Amino acid sequence: MHLRYRSPALLDGVHRGPRGLGERRAPWTWRAWRVAGLACAFWLASGSVTGVAHADKLTDAEELFRRAKGLMAAKKDHEACPLLEESQRLDPQMGTLLNLAICHENIGRTASAWGEFRAVEQQARAANREDRVKLARERASKLEPKLARIKIVVPADAKVEGLVVKVDGEAKGEPLWSGVAVDPGTRTVEASAPGKKPAVMQVSVDDAGAVVSVTVPQLENEPVAAPAAAIAPDADRMKDEEYAANRSRKTSGIVVGAIGVATMAAGGVFGVLALTNDGDAAKACPSPCFAGSNEARAADDTTDRALLFANVANVALPIGLIAAAVGGYMFLSAGPTEKPAVSARISPRPGGGSLVVSW
User: Fold this and answer.
1) Cα–Cα distances in Å, from 357 out to 65, 159, 248, 353?
2) Whole-prediction pTM value?
């Protein structure tokens, strides 16, 4: 946007524009204002969203922790433990983990508590908290004799390449098979390997310090699918992925286009404000206008606002136009988003006889 230029044309301290001798601001000043303003706006817009989301997490974690502590004080550890788990997920803290370990110990989840006490010990040592190092080590040492374990036995004929053994959905490496610490109760052991059917076994571990053996059976081979049957699903899957990509491209185009239109609208508003202030500046100090007068200063302030609004409009309008064009191109260039409908039409053959089916 171009504002009309009011030349000083000084004559004995009198000029026809609102700005006095030597008062015209250098162009680089306005460019600096424009860049700084846009950078601050972007930073505030992006940082405020992230900051609010992070603050919400911290608030939720603190609220869950306080509620859990109240439940533990009331001897309602079964209700408190899930709250502490969620608080630790939202905002991992050594104090929360320590209370979670105590809570798990109170409800008999010895293996979970033992692992959490060990984790607290490591964190406290790194933080130079000797009091917590001592507390966590002592609590873990008292629990260790009570740990129940599952011994995983894999015979030679059951050992296959790529064998994976999971306990309650968590993979356990071979060095742990001699004794995996578990919480008391019914545990699930699953063995799987590429090209084999998985084997799932339920194990009951109830006695403190008990070691229960589980033997992994020889895994059966997975049935080999016919090549023709395997090709069709892959082709369908690829088409579905193509349709999903097209839908995503159209959605992105709509979003980018909407942002572009909104930016152009904002640029138009600032353009109108620039023209309005430019006109007000001319009226504030009609010719002749003496430099340094109240009228000249008022006109200068109004001109400053007009220039600022004009620079914002000069940036917003082309950016908005480009974004709208890009969004429109993305939307229009996207391919089909849904499978084409298939319809059947049955019509009699000319001259009688059998029916003709057309698609």
Assistant:
1) 69, 57, 36, 13
2) 0.48
